């Protein structure tokens, strides 16, 4: 399957993709006033939530209840939108069909099957996109050896919500590149991964090394075509 993030599309290919019905993958991060998640934990949990949905039998089985919607979503632009919820909003979001994933530090992200771009459930449509600015109390430690790493562009500034969508994109690109055995191994690890900001001197090499690379469409915050995340999975370096 071709990906809108792997390489720039020709104008004809992009027009064809844009002519199809557009879907969006909703993600909701739990953001309580008194106990917000750490930024890196939220970014990692968002990526793991996307992978968890992609591996779910409701998606992978031909007759799975979410399979048709995911296929339609992947056939157009791969849009993801992150919204925030707290208290009763979070509880109501949890009543909708979806999957909640919890991070190592307690971050909670719920991912839902794709919905039409203009057809959000009312419980999710009213949630705010802005206000997802998060911080780490301390810089995250170096990623463990052998762990898949989603490398952030050190030259871009994005809100936590925007970055969560980008790490979800990168994880999805890596998933598409893996074979069945590699996917199974990753799933059995709980989709272990790390999100780190690349060193400026390393970024150019990461973007030219043949690894999955997210190029943003530029709908929000950053310029179209901006390279945001590189997915560095060990299995892809061995290919």
Please describe the structure with a list of short key phrases separated by commas or semicolons.
38% helix, disordered N terminus, four-stranded mixed beta sheet, 9 strands, Bit1, five-stranded mixed beta sheet, 239 residues, single chain
How would you explain this protein's 3D organization?
The protein is of the alpha+beta class and 239 residues long. It has a single domain (11-238), classed as Bit1, CATH 3.40.1490. 38% of the residues lie in helices and 18% in strands. It is built from ten helices and nine strands. The chain has helices spanning 11-19, 39-55, 57-60, 67-74, 87-94, 122-125, 160-177, 180-188, 200-207, 234-238, and strands at 23-30, 79-85, 99-102, 108-111, 115-116, 149-152, 194-197, 213-215, 227-232. The strands form two sheets. Strands 1, 2, 3, 4 and 5 form a five-stranded mixed sheet that branches. α2 (39-55) packs parallel to α7 (160-177). The chain is globular. Residues 1-8 have low confidence and may be disordered.
Helix run count: 10
Largest sheet data: 5 strands, mixed
Rg, please?
17 Å
Strand content: 15-25%
At the fourth level of CATH, the homologous superfamily is Bit1
Average pLDDT rating? 90
Task: Note the overall shape.
Answer: globular
For the terminal residues, how far apart are their CA atoms?
18 Å
- Element string (H = helix, E = strand): HEHHHEHEEEHEHHEHEEH
The third-level CATH topology is: Bit1
Number of domains: 1
Number of strands: 9
Low-confidence stretches: 1-8
Task: Give the class from helix and strand content and strand pairing.
Answer: alpha+beta
């Amino acid at each position: 399957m071709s990906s809108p993030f792997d390489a720039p599309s020709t104008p004809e290919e992009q027009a064809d993709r844009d002519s199809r019905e557009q879907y969006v993958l909703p993600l909701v991060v739990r953001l309580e006033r008194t106990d917000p998640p750490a930024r890196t934990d939220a970014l990692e949990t968002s990526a793991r939530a996307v992978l968890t949905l992609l591996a779910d039998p409701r998606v992978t089985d031909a007759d799975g209840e979410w399979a048709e919607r995911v296929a339609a979503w992947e056939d157009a632009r791969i849009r993801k939108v992150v919204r925030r919820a707290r208290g009763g909003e979070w509880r109501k979001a949890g009543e909708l069909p979806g999957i909640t994933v919890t991070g190592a530090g307690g971050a909670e992200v719920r991912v839902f099957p794709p919905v039409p771009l203009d057809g959000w459930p009312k419980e999710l449509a009213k949630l705010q996109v802005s206000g997802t600015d998060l911080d780490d109390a301390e810089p995250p430690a170096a990623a463990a050896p052998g762990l898949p790493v989603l490398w952030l562009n050190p030259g871009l500034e994005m809100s936590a919500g925007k970055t969560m969508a980008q790490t979800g994109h990168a994880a999805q690109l890596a998933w598409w590149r893996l074979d069945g055995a590699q996917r199974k191994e990753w799933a059995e690890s709980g989709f272990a991964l790390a999100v780190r900001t690349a060193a400026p001197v390393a970024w150019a090499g990461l973007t030219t090394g043949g690894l999955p690379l997210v190029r943003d469409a530029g709908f929000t915050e950053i310029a179209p075509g901006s390279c945001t995340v590189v997915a560095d999975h060990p299995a892809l370096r061995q290919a």
